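User: I'm writing a short report section on ligand binding and want a predicted complex to refer to. Could you take this sequence and NAI and write out the structure as tokens? A short remark afterwards would be nice.
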Amino acid sequence: MRKTIYWIEGDGIGREIWQAARPIIDAALAKESDLKLDWQELLAGEKAVAETGSPLPEATMQALRTAEVAMKGPLGTPVGTGMRSLNVALRQSLDLYACIRPVRHFDGLETPVKHPERVDMVIFRENTEDVYAGVEFAAKTPEARKLVAFLREELGVTKVGDEAAVGIKPMTEAGSKRLVRRALRFALDNGKQSLTLVHKGNIMKFTEGGFRQWGYDLAAEEFADVTCTEKEPVAGRLVIKDRIADAMFQEALLRPEQYQILATPNLNGDYISDALAAQVGGLGLAPGVNMSDTLAFYEATHGTAPTIAGQDKANPSSVILCGAMMLEHIGVPKAAERIRTALSKAIAARAVTVDLADQVTGARVVGCRQFGEIIGENL
Ligand code: NAI
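Assistant: Sure. The structure tokens for the complex follow:
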């Protein structure tokens, strides 16, 4: 049995982190399954420019449009092509609407909090709407003035000054529901006890408040027999609750063990993903996946780290943990667990890359390649 995995090497440290990570992913799988991964490289970024002249060749997009699973290293934003960001281009053109980030602590990593081990959450962040839609007009431009005039004259809005910069925050029922549906399915498939809708609906009643309401509506419409609400709990059912975003940041610090799955609009999700990752000391380790209805696209969440590229100093953990998530997704959760345990062991034994050395007392600094080899042996 073979499974095609499309992969993009990425720029900067991309090559070295992949060289460390791929053997680990293959070896963990071989220990648990007869399935073999058929790695098919797709070009993007600098490598693509060198070979084809384009940072995102049509052949890459064509393969991704029909792919089920893909993984990518970090991509720098190419200078002089007029493209804002390859990552944004990929997310938008492939409709990767759900950004999923698991957050947990690894033993041995020192953290800013006393009990990082109480954090074990998966964040589902809506990836296409909200203020990220990119509809913004600079202050005092004809466009902004026109929009303000429209608001005043047609809609009776008096609070927006003539000279304001203005942005639009679109959030739809369909967009919110498809994100919450995915989070709910994941929560149920993985035997979780609760799902929390994180919103700012007390202030933004129709956008963020809409997200909250549509989340509850979806649970009632499609998952009525397996879910319940916090107010009316039913034993054995998944509890749907909601928290106002600022309160959620407090809860994440004070009572993280009460939260397992978070479903959030785009901006809240951006903030809370990084805050939680920092809380467990793992900002540089965090894996992530962006999903459409057909494609799961795993990506190292850090950038290209140009200042250390090619020096064997990079930490390959994000891509390795992306591999673990991918193996879980294709149905080999034991191989995924093997990878996480092997990485955990390396950190607990204090053999870490230089970026983690400050967070591990008595750390022995190893290079990217050796870190990968240690994890490989721990498998
Ligand atoms: P960065 O994440 O590349 O670097 C920030 C800091 O973290 C640097 O000190 C870097 O050396 C360190 N770092 C990052 N990853 C590391 C790793 N795996 N091991 C050890 N140290 C690591 O962010 P920066 O400098 O803002 O961006 C550099 C380039 O990366 C830009 O072109 C940016 O557009 C791109 N980028 C791409 C992303 C993606 O493809 N998902 C995400 C973020 C940035």
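A remark for your report: The first helix runs from residue 14 to 32. Residues 13, 74-77, 87, 284, 299, 302-308, 314-315, 355 surround NAI (CB under 6 Å).
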